[in-house]
Amino acid sequence: MTLIHIVLFKFRQDVSEEHKNKFVTELKKLKSLSCVKGGRLIVGGPSLTDPIERSKGFQIALMSYHEDREALAEYQASDEHHRVTSTYMFPFKEDLIRFDFEVDEEDEYMCHFPQLLV
């Protein structure tokens, strides 16, 4: 089974681009955690949605793959995740959306990737 974890981040208006870039850099380091399936963690932004208003002001997105709910819980509880979110996100956020779902069995084949060297 694969569980996909998606988070959209919106920072306050007074947060600098430098800070947001540092947050993205630190988020990307989380792909090395063993609870991230195959090192599959993607961070992107800004939104290319047209019209941009449909993005509802969210500036950065994260999508990560996990083997199961236990692996996602391990990711969320990790010291590394806590350091990144408590240092670079929670004190500066305006809003965030989190959405987690299990991949249907018939779609699981799309979640098999060659092992990455991280």
Keywords:
118 residues, alpha+beta, Alpha-Beta Plaits, 25% strand
Count the helices. How many? 3
The number of strands is 4
Low-confidence runs (pLDDT<50, min 5 residues)? none
Tell me the span between the first and last alpha carbons: 22 Å
Strand line-up in the sheet with most strands: 2-3-1-4
Q: Please, what is the average pLDDT? A: 94
Coarse shape: globular
Compressed to H and E, one letter per element, the order equals EHEEHHE
Q: Sheet bearing the most strands, described? A: 4 strands, antiparallel
Instruction: Specify the CATH architecture.
Output: 2-Layer Sandwich
Helix content: 25-40%
CATH class: Alpha Beta
* CATH topology label: Alpha-Beta Plaits
Please characterize this protein's 3D structure:
InterPro entries: Dabb, Dimeric_a/b-barrel, HS1/DABB1-like. Homodimer. This is Stress-response A/B barrel domain-containing protein. Residues 3-101 form the Stress-response A/B barrel domain. This protein has one domain: Alpha-Beta Plaits (2-Layer Sandwich). It is α+β, with helices and mostly antiparallel strands and 118 residues long. It is built from 3 helices and 4 strands, in the order βαββααβ. It has a 4-stranded antiparallel beta sheet. The chain is globular, with a radius of gyration of 15 Å.
